[in-house]
Amino acid sequence: MAAHPSKPGDNGTLWHYLSDLLAYECVNGGQISIITRLDRETSGLTLVAKTQAQARSFCRQMEARTIHKSYLALVWGWPQQDVWEIDGPLGRLGATTHSKIWLKQAILKEGAPAITRFEVVQRFSRPSSNGSEFSLIRAIPQTGRMHQIRVHLQASGHSILGDKIYGPDQECYLEFIETGWSSALEEQLLLPRHALHAEHLLLKESGLSWTAPLPKDMAAFIGNYSPIFSKT
Questions:
Q1: Triad 226, 230, 231: Cα angle to 5°
Q2: Residues 6+ apart with CB under 8 A from 91
Q3: Which of 93, 151, 203, 226 is most deeply buried (CB count within 10 A of its CB)?
Q4: pLDDT tens-digit profile of 26-55?
């Protein structure tokens, strides 16, 4: 489900459903504002303000970096290190070179500052087949750029499973737009959506926090492999 409308006619978004659910509040001066927006295929927590005043407060906290978020991602391969950081400014690739995908982001010198810290949570292996090493990664973004975690993991050499744009071949995205999900795409990507999950959200100023458990599709994938080590 998309978080908010991106073009005329979009009406099945999170924003629409919340507007219906909170119609009474909206009629009485409320306003729905999605503060921490997620990519369409990303699961997990999102923060929503129900009033304009609260939205302003949340935006101030975001600017002060007192709203902390962490994500879990299933990626290809085993990172060499257990903890690392990517400091890579991000911008739209098509702004500097030809790109078949208009929204594709890339690390660009002239891009907006973007920093992500990564930690290996668990490594997985299935010795019976080639190319079957995977890892569960915790991503802690220090900034909030479009596709930041996905681009920084690709730059680390460990793209997210199921990622049609930043995975093994961007042509997967173009094929998906044309044909929808197929057995050929499943063979390349393994999962029908990118395996990224917003697991934790902390409002430092108020001390409020929430955690969303790993979704069923990611948990099921992990269950098919043998853990090498785990870290909480």
A1: 165
A2: 105, 106, 108, 110, 111, 112
A3: 151
A4: 999 999 999 998 988 999 999 999 999 999
Banded model confidence at residue 229, pLDDT cuts 50, 70, 90: low
Which residue out of 39, 82, 163, 217 is catalytically annotated? Answer: 39
pLDDT of the residue at 230? 52
Cα angle value 11/166/91 (rounded, 5°)? 80
Element holding 190 (H helix, E strand): none
Q: Is 169 a catalytic residue?
A: no
Q: For residue 223, what pLDDT band results from cuts at 50, 70 and 90? A: confident
DSSP assignment string, 101-138: STT-EEE-TTSB--EEEEEEEEEEE-TTSTT-EEEEEE
Q: Given CA atoms 36, 73, 202, 60 in this order, what sign does their dihedral have?
A: negative
